[in-house]
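Message: Study each token:
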Amino acid sequence: MKHTLDALWQLARLAVLSKMKLRGAYWKWRRDTAFGTNASTMPSRAARFKAILEYGAWVGQMRRLASRGD
């Protein structure tokens, strides 16, 4: 549960930093890089949601490592 909350927090933080332009260039690039542009080969909605949460968790881990100076 803590892992999920941290992931959601990091995703919300990124949304605010990108000025909530979730259909803007950064998020389009991020989506295309992660899932591709071919709808027929794209993962299911549930798989994409899981991957997005994992990305949020990764962002949190990287921020914590950076703050420690590692």
Observations:
- The radius of gyration is 13 Å.
- Residues 45-68 form the longest helix (24 residues).
